[in-house]
Amino acid sequence: MIRPRRRAPVVALIALLLAGLCAAGINHTRSASASTTDRAAVIQQQQKLTGCVPQGARYRENGWRGRRWVALTFDGGPTAEYTARVLAQLRQAKVHVTFFIRGQFIKGHTNLLRKELADGHELANHSYSHPHFPSSYELSRTNKLIYRASGYTPCLFRAPYGSIDNALLGRARHLHMLTIGWDVDSWDSLYDNVSKATVYSRVVNRVRPGSIILMHDGEGSHKGTLQALGPILRNLAARHLQVVPVSQLLGLRELH
Hints:
By secondary structure, this protein is of the alpha/beta class.
């Protein structure tokens, strides 16, 4: 008697092969997805700014008036009390600014420097301990700390208190930095508890194309800054004034 062939092993073998093919497809999809993620991370890393090339006059208080760009700048941070809240408002408004970093505040706040850079903002030098007419050591020390924390090398410097002379301008330029002043002072560090109304009116009544605006996220009381920042950004947008980093305002070449 001829027995019929048993089909169960064949069916099982087919099922096993199909399962293997499916698994291979899933693994390929996962591999492709991981590869895409990796490529995106590499591209993002390549696009991250690492500095800019100083050129032109060694001291600037504003940019070209013929384009509706303005630069918003924050001095004296990073600080736990203000910097993160400033960043949150800038992120919501989708604008990029320049942070003038005080070297002695970097320790313990390196995450904030990296966040500033990751959000597309520019890092600049505001000396190490904020003295009048800081030495070359003050400037170079701060540049090194910024670089170690973020991989970014500043090409811009702002003098503490805005006090400058030819010697200081020369020291900054020798370290490949332009010295940046301002033409709009928000008064947010003039005295303690400067009001939102004062900060707001000082900025919106004085700003014009090419302006560099001075604000603070450093030590001291800057509640008025936090309260006025959102309304200021909305006012600038309504007037079609685009907020850009200082290097972009001045037409400096960025390094990647």
